[in-house]
Amino acid sequence: MPLPDTMFCAQQIHIPPELPDILKQFTKAAIRTQPADVLQWSAGYFSALSRGDPLPVKDRIEMPVATQKTDTGLTQGLLRVLHKQCSHRQYVDLADLEQKWGKLCLPIEKFRALLQLDPCEHEMEWMKFLALGCSMLGGSLSTAMKHLCEILTTDPEGGPARIPFETFAYVYRYLSRLDPAISVAETDVYLSSLKDSITPFEAPATGPCLLTPWTTLSFL
């Protein structure tokens, strides 16, 4: 038997004063992020909001760019989101990271395939995972390092994308070791020549920084 229609007057309906702003910010976040599954992403959004964690929200709408050999769904914007959520820890729990990956509506099988490049048991250094994610965005070491610099830089968008040389060298060595076609000697020569040729820039609390460099070495 259907319930009878109930009439309410305006005085009986209480709207929490913070609700309009919550819904407004949620709508703007959904438009910027363009999640593949709005309900799945929304669950992650409100879960993070309730805990006070960084939200799974892109800084801006991304235009589609066909740079990947296969469509993984991963973009630089989504890697930025993961970096905001995870970079406060040196090591990340892989189970927790898999959850964050899933709440961004990214295929779990791609997450597991990425980890096969450098298998770990239960946790992984965040910078290494970020490096592997950058390598998934393109098919060359230069492309991976370009994405890394653009994610890590504190320069304004459209600027030189400077990062500390030590960070660049650490990630470059890590990715080059995963490519059997690149020898340790080649890596050492490249980084040595790069360090000698760049003009250093002092960045607060980070030491010498460099402009985004390029290399033609292949990767993956």
Give a verbal description of the structure.
The chain is mainly alpha-helical. It has two domains: 21-60 and 69-128, no CATH class; 138-220, no CATH class. The protein is built from nine helices and five strands, in the order H-H-H-E-H-H-E-H-H-E-H-H-E-E. It has helices at 19-33, 38-51, 76-86, 94-103, 108-115, 126-136, 141-152, 165-177, 184-197, and strands spanning 91-93, 123-125, 163-164, 201-203, 207-210. The protein has a three-stranded antiparallel β-sheet with strand order 3-5-4. Strand 4 and strand 5 (207-210) form a beta hairpin. Helix 3 packs antiparallel against helix 6 (126-136), helix 7 runs antiparallel to helix 8 and helix 8 runs antiparallel to helix 9 (184-197). Mean pLDDT is 84; it is low at 65-70, 202-208 and 211-220. Its main location: other. Keywords: Cell projection, Cilium, Flagellum. InterPro entries: ROP_DD (IPR047844). It comes from Pteropus alecto (Black flying fox).
Write a concise keyword list for the protein shown above:
cilium, two-stranded antiparallel sheet, disordered C terminus, 5 strands, 7% strand, mainly alpha, 220 residues, single chain
Helix percentage: 40-55%
Number of strands: 5
Q: What gross morphology would you assign?
A: elongated
Count of separate structural domains: 2
Radius of gyration: 22 Å
Number of H/I helices: 9
The class by helix and strand makeup works out as mainly alpha
> SSE order, as H and E?
HHHEHHEHHEHHEE
The largest sheet has its strands arranged as: 3-5-4
Beta-strand content: 5-15%
Describe the sheet with the most strands.
3 strands, antiparallel
N-to-C CA distance: 64 Å
| Low-confidence region ranges | 65-70, 202-208, 211-220
Q: Averaged pLDDT, please?
A: 84
Main location: other
Subcellular location: Cell projection, Cilium, Flagellum
Family: Belongs to the ropporin family.
Keywords: Cell projection, Cilium, Flagellum
